[in-house]
Specification:
Elements: E1 4-8, H1 11-22, E2 30-34, H2 41-51, E3 66-69, E4 75-79, H3 92-96, E5 101-105, E6 118-125, E7 131-138, H4 140-150
Parallel strand pairs: 2-5, 2-6, 4-5
Antiparallel strand pairs: 1-7, 3-4, 6-7
Helix pairs in contact: 1-2
Bound molecules: adenosine-5'-diphosphate and magnesium ion.
GO molecular function, one term: transferase activity
Protein name: tRNA threonylcarbamoyladenosine biosynthesis protein TsaE
Keywords: ATP-binding, Cytoplasm, Magnesium, Metal-binding, Nucleotide-binding, Transferase, tRNA processing
Length: 151
């Protein structure tokens, strides 16, 4: 397993990078986002949504856990922060095996439900505008995606 890192210096740069990733994704792909509150997980998801041609404004699903958006592929945006102390399964597999792109903030809280093949993204807050973004592909498909993304 290999790791890849980039740095962004503005919100726009993060959005653009996420947008570039989105066009490399295929139906059923699961992308997990880790990082502290304010790191940029929802911002990164907005970039993915842009790349998928989602027209609606993407907002944090913290209180709803899952929000669905219509794009060139459906986007399922989850924020599972509220499931930290729960092992509730709210039907994740239907989403993970589905025909859309799943983006999961705080995914380690639902580790037991995550598919093995996934793209893990860790966002580190460096300073007010600077973020370090690490990509950890799991599986051959995501290795290819990341190689393409970094080239
Ligand atoms: P999270 O979902 O991880 O809690 P958000 O995406 O909601 O984080 O918030 C990230 C905040 O950081 C936003 O207010 C965004 O404008 C700001 N920000 C500043 N610089 C960056 C950057 N380089 N990349 C992403 N977000 C940034
Ligand atoms: Mg968020």
């Amino acid at each position: 397993m290999s790791a890849y890192k980039i740095e962004t210096h503005t919100e726009l740069e993060t959005l653009k990078f996420a947008q570039k990733l989105a066009v490399l994704l295929k139906p059923g792909d699961v992308v997990t986002l880790e990082g502290d509150l304010g790191a940029g997980k929802t911002t990164f998801t907005k970039g993915i949504a842009n790349g998928l041609g989602v027209k609606r404004n993407v907002t944090s699903p913290t209180f709803t856990i899952i929000k669905e958006y219509e794009g060139e592929l459906p986007l399922y945006h989850m924020d599972v922060y509220r499931l930290e102390h729960s092992d509730e399964d709210i039907g994740f597999e239907e989403y993970f095996k589905g025909d859309g792109i799943c983006v999961v903030e705080w995914a380690h809280f639902i580790e037991e439900f995550l598919p093995e093949e996934r793209l893990t993204i860790k966002i580190n807050y460096i300073d007010e505008h600077k973020r370090e973004i690490e990509f950890i592909p799991n599986g051959a498909h995501f290795e290819l995606v990341i190689n393409e993304l970094m080239s």
